[in-house]
Amino acid sequence: MTREDFNDLSQDLLGRPVTAAEFQALLQAATALRLAPGSPVAILLTLFQALRTEIAAATAIRVGSAETLAKARRQVRIRGWIMGAVLGVCCGGLGWTLATLQTVARDYQALQWALTEDGKRARRMSDSGLLKTLDDCSIPGWAMTGNVCAPGVDPATGTIRGIRTRGNP
Questions:
Q1: How far apart are CA 65 and CA 42, in angstroms?
Q2: Do the bridges between strand 148-150 and strand 143-145 make them parallel or antiparallel, or are there none, so unpaired?
């Protein structure tokens, strides 16, 4: 069997070509057993060699020095801090955006009301000072009854004063 035969077989089984070390081990076994390409034993040998390679890699990682493990842990911690910082900034930005959108929605509702006839009327009353006068209940003869500013008789003139909300008719 050639390297190309092993590469094709490995590509079909493992999704990758054989490494140089795997090829050397497989070539020795295939030559000793006189295996033909596509042989079931060649398939089993390829899978077994891939398993040996994976176990060797896992063992090398596990047996790595304490310094390598400490470096890996430090890198994981640094990544964690970075991810935490990024997540914090994103959450803060999202909160600020949502608060801004809610404020804009409330302002839009107030603007929509201000553009109605009632809103325009309230603006005229505010500009003339009438809303402040009503809020203070400072019209002569008017008095607070609970939470309501109610009209009454003006003691100076004996008449009941009303409120004019528009200019002279």
A1: 36
A2: antiparallel
- Put simply, whether the predicted model's pTM sits higher than 0.70 gets the answer no
Q: What is the pLDDT of residues 101-140, one digit of tens each?
A: 999 999 999 999 999 999 998 898 889 888 888 888 888 8
Q: Please state, in angstroms and rounded to a whole number, the distance separating the CA atoms of residues 1 and 34.
A: 9
C-alpha span between 107 and 101 (Å, rounded):
10
Alpha carbon distances (Å) from 64 to 51, 70, 103 = 20, 10, 56
How do residues 2-45 score in pLDDT, each as one tens digit?
A: 888 888 888 877 788 888 888 888 888 888 888 788 777 887 77
Q: DSSP states of 29-80 as a string?
A: HHHHHTPPTT-HHHHHHHHHHHHHHHHHHHHHHHT--HHHHHHHHHHHHHHH
Percent of the chain that is helix, strand, coil (3-state, to 5):
70, 5, 25
Nearest to 23 by CA among 45, 41, 40, 39: 45
Q: Which residues, including other chains, have CB under 8 Å from residue 122's CB and lie 6 or more apart?
A: 114, 131
CA 150, CA 144: separation in Å to the nearest integer? 6
